[in-house]
Amino acid sequence: MTVNTYQKILEDTILNVFENMYYMFPEKQMNNDDHFSFPLSCFYTKVSFCTNQKKIILWGTKQLAAKMAKNFLGEDRAFSNAELIDIFKEAANVIIGNFISASDSAPDIRFQVPVISEKQIMQYDKDISNAVDLVYIIENEFFRIALAA
Description:
The protein is of the alpha+beta class and 149 residues long. It is globular and about 40 Å long. It starts with a helix and ends with a strand. Strands 1-5-6-3-2-4 form a six-stranded antiparallel beta sheet. The chain contains three helices and six strands. The protein has one domain (3-148): CheC-like (Chemotaxis protein chec), CATH 3.40.1550.
């Protein structure tokens, strides 16, 4: 598959997951520095596929995770950090699973269970080693997904 095909699948996957699970509407950004005040406190995960060298990397602000939890669970309350990590981990699982399904990969492709950490992003630097690197504004919050091949 070409890089453009992978990018299209990731874009479609992000739209589908956020619209259908979280009732949110991602807006892809081209020039990423103008919309965010760095540093950003983000959840972060890098998930490797067990059968090849690909990795999917996700970043999302804690505020985004809180909005996702509110929309997904239908509860307007403060969520604990552990609950926010769980909601971000579930999103990572769904995004990666949908990406694998849509990419017509071998049916036996497996991926590692996402491990979520917290990371301060000082600025947006596109990593040219990533095959695909996409940034979104979702409900005025930062979300980034990258595919490393």
